Amino acid sequence: MYSEIDALYEDILNGDKEALEKLLNKLKPLVLSSINKYYNKIDKYDDLIQEGFEVIINAINDFDEDKGCYLLGYIKLMLKYYYLDKSKYEKKTISLNKVISNEDESLELLDMIKDEKPLMEEMMIEDESRKTLWESISKLTKRQRQIIYLYYFNNKSLKDVSKELSISYRTAVNIKGKALENLRKNIYK
User: Looking at per-residue confidence, does 32 or 174 come out higher?
Assistant: First the structure.
């Protein structure tokens, strides 16, 4: 095959236009193979084949026999790098409306993306819950508020809370329990 390619190349250099067409037809399986290996996009085959022929023509024009390599090897390499580069630099875009479920055709990719921002209703509920909690905490005794604040908001252990408030551990446990009971009553009235 190398000798046949080299003979067609010589004819091309001598100005034979039909030789170029014969060479392109001879190398079409190489183009198809390169597309399948390095850039397999079935829907773009016709365009990719034409681009491959263009790469071959440029390779023929750029080929330097003095470099000591075969024309066919050079063309293979040029096709490989062309399709690899095309694959590498092609922007990957995916429609968010692409259907992603065969069973339920109404399920789109967009439906699977989690929204990190809370919905307005969620924010309102959270604000209302926070308001209710603070109102309930304000109804506790001073000592109960201190223990709830130190334990839940400052993340201190009951042992540390009891030391800081100079009360026994058991007293801290009892006050915390009573405070939680009062909070439940105030919140769930």
Answer: 174
Taken as a whole, the chain contains a residue count of 189
Alpha helices in 39-165 (DSSP H): 45-62, 71-89, 120-138, 142-148, 158-164
Q: Would you give the DSSP letter of residue 124?
A: H
Please tell me whether residues 132 and 68 are part of one structural domain.
no
The domain total for the chain is 2
Stated pTM of the model? 0.47
**Cβ-based burial of 143 (10 A; exposed 0-12, middle 13-18, buried ≥19):** middle
The contacts of residue 26 (CB under 8 Å, 6+ apart) are 4, 5, 8
Q: Is residue 133 part of a domain?
A: yes
Instruction: Quote the domain boundaries for residue 154.
Output: 120-187
Contact 169, 157 (CB under 8 A): no
* 7, 60: one domain: yes
Residue 105: pLDDT band by 50, 70, 90 thresholds? low
Q: How confident is the model at residue 67 (pLDDT cuts 50, 70, 90)?
A: confident
Which of 45, 69, 89 marks a domain boundary? Answer: 89
DSSP 114: P
One domain for residues 65 and 144: no
Between the alpha carbon of residue 2 and those of residues 59, 71, 82, 122, 180, the distances in Å are: 16, 8, 22, 72, 88
